[in-house]
Amino acid sequence: MSSDAFLFALFLVAVVNTSRYISTLRTLLAVMRECDPLLYQQVDGRGFFSSQGNVSKQIRLFHYIRSEQYKKHHDPVFMAKCIKVRKLFVLASTFVIAFFISIFAVAFLGY
Fold first, then answer.
1. Cβ atoms of 17 and 92 closer than 8 Å
2. Which domain holds residue 43?
3. Do 56 and 48 touch, CB atoms closer than 8 A?
4. pTM for the full predicted model
5. Tens-digit pLDDT profile for residues 49-98
6. What distance in Å separates the CA atoms of residue 50 and residue 44, rounded to the nearest whole number?
7. What does the pLDDT read at residue 21?
8. Number of domain units in the chain
């Protein structure tokens, strides 16, 4: 198997998982708007994916999910979406990091 085919396959897997993560994050924001409007405003739900989005508020959602504060929430659908977002973030991040490490290995180490 050539290194180009390996990099291309790894890139495709990383893109698919990243798009799954973003899609699930969008559905989480939609569920959040209905079940917890205060949290939705705190994480800048309306402007989350816009160019004028407030990064500090977006990081607040990251810390909310990372510290698993959603486990205290009353809505099981919201909790399930948070768990899925957390898992997909880890998966997408892992594949993106593996892709960049593979590029380094192919380009500089000659594998």
1. yes
2. 3-108
3. no
4. 0.85
5. 888 878 888 899 999 999 999 999 999 999 999 999 999 999 999 999 99
6. 10
7. 95
8. 1
